[in-house]
Amino acid sequence: MFIISVSGRGIKRAAAGLAAAAALAAVIAVSGYFVDKAHRNREINGRILDTAVRDDSDILRIAEFLTGTDECAAPEHTEITIPYSFNRVYEEYNGLQAGFGTDLRDYSGAVCDKYTVLYGDACDGSTLTLIVHNGLLIGGDLSENAFDGTIRGLSDLTGTKPAE
Known about the structure:
Mean pLDDT: 79
Strand content: 25-35%
Largest sheet: 5 strands, antiparallel
Strand order of the largest sheet: 3-4-5-6-7
Radius of gyration: 23 Å
Number of helices: 3
Structural class: alpha+beta
Number of strands: 7
Shape: elongated
Helix content: 25-40%
Low-confidence stretches: 25-38, 160-164
């Protein structure tokens, strides 16, 4: 048989320690909520985009927001791994992401979801590429499908249909 003796001072210390741990947990939870919300909502050209991605319908919602058209094809999904070291091409692509507030180096080695959404026809349309990590849109681009087409980062999109 064991007898445990606790003084009044020990109980006070234990209660103070538990209270401090609970306060710290509350601060972490609240700050995590606001950090997540800040990363979830991005301002693009004066409009707020919710970047949470749960399924293809969220990808289409984001595509409509960015392109200004609801005539997007069903998204295609693949997985990519962000490399640990960037070559010239990745450095240039990462430069496109800067306006969106993302540095892809922060995701080095991470497996991400890559969604491609086509709109318009195969030759004259465009391809929207979206990169998602842990359910949040972290970057992407819009490429014109024409031979001499341009590529733009997400922050450069206006959400209006291109001139026809």
